[in-house]
């Protein structure tokens, strides 16, 4: 384990913990590695979402009602 890691306690559903243990055994990785990868991937997805929001900040806002109206006008609804 790297000296730069931080120890923490998390509480998992027993079935999820069992599944993680099995996956760790099958992949020759630790449960910590699997959890770290999952958290890293989730945070990366959040960063991508925030970047996409930032790129679209100047786009006009559309209301649900206006989208429905446009769909009706186009004959798609």
TrEMBL record:
<dbReference type="InterPro" id="IPR002145">
    <property type="entry name" value="CopG"/>
</dbReference>
<protein>
    <submittedName>
        <fullName>Ribbon-helix-helix protein, CopG family</fullName>
    </submittedName>
</protein>
<dbReference type="Pfam" id="PF01402">
    <property type="entry name" value="RHH_1"/>
</dbReference>
<dbReference type="InterPro" id="IPR010985">
    <property type="entry name" value="Ribbon_hlx_hlx"/>
</dbReference>
<feature type="domain" description="Ribbon-helix-helix protein CopG">
    <location>
        <begin position="6"/>
        <end position="45"/>
    </location>
</feature>
């Amino acid at each position: 384990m790297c000296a730069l890691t931080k120890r923490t306690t998390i509480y998992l559903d027993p079935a999820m913990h069992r599944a993680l243990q099995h996956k760790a055994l099958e992949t020759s990785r630790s449960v910590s590695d699997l959890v770290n990868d999952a958290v890293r991937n989730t945070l990366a997805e959040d960063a991508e979402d925030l970047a996409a929001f930032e790129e679209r900040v100047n786009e006009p806002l559309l209301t649900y009602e206006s989208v429905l109206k446009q769909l009706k006008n186009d004959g798609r609804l």
